[in-house]
Amino acid sequence: MDHLVEELEEKIVLYDSWGWERPDATLVSGSGLAVDLPFPSSGRRPLTDLLPWAARGIEGHPMEVELLSVPDGPRVLYYRGRVHGYQGYTAAQVVFPVRLSRLLGSETLLMTNAAGGLAPDLAPGSLVLLTDHLNLTGINPLTGEP
Predict the structure, then answer these.
(1) Tens of pLDDT along 19-31?
(2) Residues 6 or more apart from 76 whose CB is under 8 A from it?
């Protein structure tokens, strides 16, 4: 399995060339949750700048990345959108931005999603906390020698 190790190294060099500080935490927004956050930002860049392939966005995923500076808090790498396995990407491609964040120094990861269908009493847009999930895809990004 191709873990995209060389591509990760290339994107670290690119990230550093932007002059952005290294992140302490990463936030990945899911469908409909890529909102503007009220923190100082390094500015937005296309998420595709950090991906070694052409990416196809879907509804609710602006496909942007920015570095937020939370006052008296962490520097947060904010992925406004992501790619999904059902779009035809491999597991290694789906997790590429998260691996990149970790290699840049991020130690905390928060992901949001449109979980859908969890309970009939939840209206669209309800916020819920998931502490685990089932991987029913049959693929795992950790397969093979990293």
Answers:
(1) 999 999 999 998 7
(2) 23, 24, 25, 26, 27, 39, 67, 68, 69, 70
- C-alpha distances (whole Å) from 53 to each of 79, 87, 105, 107 are 16, 13, 23, 25
- SS3 labels along 81-127: CCCCHHHCCCHHHHCHHHHHHHHHCCCEEEECCCCCCCCCCCCCCCC
What is the tens place of the pLDDT at every residue in 72-130? 999 999 999 888 888 888 888 989 999 999 999 999 999 887 766 677 887 766 777 77
Structure tokens at 146: 């990293």
User: Which one, of 96, 50, 43, lies nearest residue 67 by Cα?
Assistant: 43
Residue 50 falls in which region: left (phi positive, over 0), alpha (psi -120 to 50) or beta? alpha
Report pTM.
0.85
